[in-house]
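Sanity check

After download, print the first record. It should look like this:
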Amino acid sequence: MKLSHRRYVSILLGLFVLFWLALAIEPVDRADWMLENALVALAVPLLVVTYRFFRFSRTSYTLIFAFLCLHEVGAHYTYAKVPYDAWLQALTGHSFDVQLGVTRNHFDRLGHFAFGLLLSYPMREIFVRVADARGFWSYYLPLDMTMAFSMIFELVEWAAAVVFGGDLGVAYLGTQGDPWDAQKDMLMATLGGLAAMVVTAVVNGRHQRDFAREWIESLRVKQKTR
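Expected structure tokens:
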């Protein structure tokens, strides 16, 4: 029996609350955990409050849920200390870092890539259903928004590091000594968003009969200059 939309979203919310509670127990750095969860404390209530007025699809809520869970892992350990390589060694017997010659913890890069990959689709829903974006613009604008949010977040990280300073600022910024960390993070978010929009376009191209016509129409000049 297919679950109703409300029940499905309620289950995702309940699972996330349980996951959040589990990872809230003895994080590696409590102060950093609180900073990392500041945006979560705003985003989740906002999604709950706006459910009556704007309901994302099940796919979008699932993608948001996946991203939030991934973020909570980073918040629990701090992004620079997530022991993903130890987990992979336990599962496969091989070290990801050793095989690729990696000398830093790349979980933060995964987090930024996941931001673009998992949240661009929900952003597209907003543009399609609210702004009535069609064709090319329904894929470009979500990618553009992903890049904009990624840039804004890097500014927030920088501001937080300046305000709090010390070990907390370093833990939250998570550069791990890389002077180009912010640029690389934005690149990963862009690549994730691009991958999401390409996959979405391919799927829609196969199932929408008017896909090509919609793309052509979206690029046609609607109002000519006088």
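If your output differs, re-run the checksum step. Summary of this record's structure: The chain has a mean pLDDT of 89.
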